[in-house]
C-alpha cells in the first residue's frame, strides 16, 4: 500500500525583493523566456506546467519555474492535481518599469 503524495506549496519571492541581476538572469534563458512569453499571452491561472511548448523534461521544467518564482516573475498554485501559473506582470512592472514590456516585444532568437 502506498502513501498519498502531498505536494509542498511553492515558495514565491516578491518582485520588490529581487535584485535586477536576478531578474535579468531569469529572463536571459531561452526556455524561461518562452515560458514568460506564453504566460503573457494566456489568461491568469489558465496554464498548467505541462502545457508549455518547451524542449525540456519535467525536472528541467520544474527548475525553470523555480528560477522564475525566485525572480518574482511567476506565481504558482495547485488546483487539484495541476499546478497552474500566472505572470506577475503588474508587480514585476512596478519593480522594474518597462523591462518586461521590452523583453516581450523583442523577437526570440532563431
TrEMBL record:
<protein>
    <submittedName>
        <fullName>Transcriptional regulator</fullName>
    </submittedName>
</protein>
<keyword id="KW-0238">DNA-binding</keyword>
<keyword id="KW-0804">Transcription</keyword>
<dbReference type="InterPro" id="IPR011991">
    <property type="entry name" value="ArsR-like_HTH"/>
</dbReference>
<keyword id="KW-0805">Transcription regulation</keyword>
<dbReference type="InterPro" id="IPR051081">
    <property type="entry name" value="HTH_MetalResp_TranReg"/>
</dbReference>
<dbReference type="InterPro" id="IPR001845">
    <property type="entry name" value="HTH_ArsR_DNA-bd_dom"/>
</dbReference>
<dbReference type="InterPro" id="IPR036388">
    <property type="entry name" value="WH-like_DNA-bd_sf"/>
</dbReference>
<dbReference type="GO" id="GO:0003700">
    <property type="term" value="F:DNA-binding transcription factor activity"/>
</dbReference>
<dbReference type="InterPro" id="IPR036390">
    <property type="entry name" value="WH_DNA-bd_sf"/>
</dbReference>
<dbReference type="GO" id="GO:0003677">
    <property type="term" value="F:DNA binding"/>
</dbReference>
<feature type="domain" description="HTH arsR-type">
    <location>
        <begin position="12"/>
        <end position="107"/>
    </location>
</feature>
Amino acid at each position: 500500500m502506498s502513501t498519498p503524495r502531498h505536494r509542498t506549496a511553492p515558495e514565491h519571492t516578491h518582485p520588490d525583493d529581487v535584485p535586477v541581476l536576478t531578474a535579468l538572469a531569469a529572463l536571459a534563458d531561452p526556455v524561461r523566456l518562452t515560458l514568460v512569453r506564453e504566460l503573457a499571452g494566456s489568461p491568469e491561472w489558465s496554464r498548467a506546467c505541462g502545457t508549455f511548448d518547451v524542449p525540456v523534461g519535467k525536472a528541467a521544467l520544474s527548475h525553470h519555474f523555480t528560477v522564475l518564482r525566485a525572480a518574482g516573475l511567476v506565481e504558482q498554485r495547485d488546483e487539484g492535481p495541476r499546478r497552474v501559473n500566472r505572470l506577475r506582470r503588474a508587480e514585476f512592472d512596478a519593480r522594474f518599469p518597462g523591462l518586461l514590456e521590452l523583453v516581450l516585444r523583442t523577437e526570440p532568437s532563431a
